[in-house]
Design goal:
It is a single chain. With about 150 residues, the chain is mostly beta strands. About 10% of the residues lie in helices and about 55% in strands. It has one domain. The longest helix is centred in the last third of the chain and has 16 residues, at about 125-140. It is globular, with a radius of gyration of 14 Å.
């Protein structure tokens, strides 16, 4: 799977998730409000808000359009993880070449990845990359929204 950047205009970044040439979803990220608007190919549309919370603003939290916390990004023993619901996904980024990065998602650290996506690292800033990662893990957690099977 690959996140492909479609366009960028005045603080908006639009990405589409492709699997074997088939479009699974589109994510429109607004950097001024840290809002990610997701259009699933099955017809569902959702708005997610990415917020930095905590005393030192070091926790990245994903909230839905109703303000409910859906997931968060954190570090444990120098390993990045995404927690969605009661499931924790570990994340490992591998640099393929100067412009592309492969992001591997694991159920349990140090096992075979359950999903992998590629992304052009020159097209992604930190909050945009976090939103892509969180929405991807949300799709793994709730597979009825989109089929991520390759």
């Amino acid at each position: 799977m690959i996140w492909q950047k479609i366009t960028s205009a005045f603080g908006d970044s639009v990405f589409t998730l492709l699997s074997n040439g088939k479009k699974l979803l589109t994510l429109d990220f607004h950097s001024s409000s840290n809002a990610a608007r997701v259009n699933f190919e099955m017809g569902e549309r959702r708005v997610f808000l990415l917020r930095k919370e905590g005393f030192f603003k070091n926790k990245v939290v994903l909230r839905d359009e109703y303000g409910q916390t859906i997931g968060r990004i954190g570090n444990e023993n120098n390993k990045k993880f995404v927690s969605v619901g009661d499931t924790r996904y570990y994340v490992n980024a591998e640099h393929i070449n100067n412009s592309e990065t492969a992001v591997n998602i694991y159920n349990i650290a140090e096992q075979a990845p359950i999903a992998t996506y590629n992304i052009d690292k020159t097209a992604v800033t930190s909050p945009t990359g976090d939103s892509l990662l969180m929405v991807f893990c949300l799709c793994l957690y709730a597979p009825e929204r989109v089929s991520l099977a390759s």
